[in-house]
Design brief:
InterPro entries: Myb_DNA-bind_5. 46% of the residues lie in helices and 2% in strands. The chain is an all-alpha fold. The longest helix is centred in the middle third of the chain and has 22 residues.
Length: 162
């Protein structure tokens, strides 16, 4: 009976490899993040990842040869983990404080060009909104308001009558 041989697993990237990967990514970021999905753009992206992998392998920091696909996946994993960690920093509640960012994760976040989303100034998930800030929004029921018409001849309309 034939046994299925397990695929040899690549060793994990060292911290030095991850940091170098992020620095190399910065050199090719414009090519990799270029908008579009044409064959020419996709070939340029693949060539950029291959160059990054070649330069990473030439450094011999990890002692293992990496494919461009492994390097690309590792970059995406670093970015995903950094984004999750950043979200944890903004979370409320108990528990231990989140770990510090590694240099690679900090670089990944700095290269990520996603829009920044801010909450309401002075508020957070576990405290009520300051009345001075809330006052800019309409709350409750309007009891009576008169709206003047454009021509001064006609009387105003009272919304309380509607």
């Amino acid at each position: 009976m034939a046994q299925n041989a397990a695929k040899p697993r690549a060793e994990s990237f060292s911290v030095a490899e991850q940091n170098l990967l992020m620095e190399l990514y910065d050199d090719y970021c414009d090519i990799i993040t270029k908008k579009g999905n044409t064959a020419q753009i996709n070939k340029a992206r693949e060539a950029a990842w291959k160059t990054i992998a070649d330069r990473l392998n030439a450094s011999n920091l990890g002692g293992q040869k990496r494919t461009w696909q492994q390097v690309k996946i590792k970059y995406k994993n670093i970015l995903t983990n950094a984004t999750k960690k950043k979200a944890q920093l903004g979370a409320t509640g108990g528990g231990p404080p989140p770990e510090e960012f590694t240099q690679a994760k900090s670089l990944a976040l700095s290269y990520n060009k996603s829009p920044k989303i801010d909450g309401i100034q002075g508020g957070n998930a576990s405290s009520p909104i300051d009345p001075a800030i809330r006052a800019t929004f309409v709350e409750g029921t309007v009891l009576s308001t008169t709206i003047p018409l454009l021509h001064g001849d006609s009387p105003s309309v009272d919304l309380a009558d509607c």
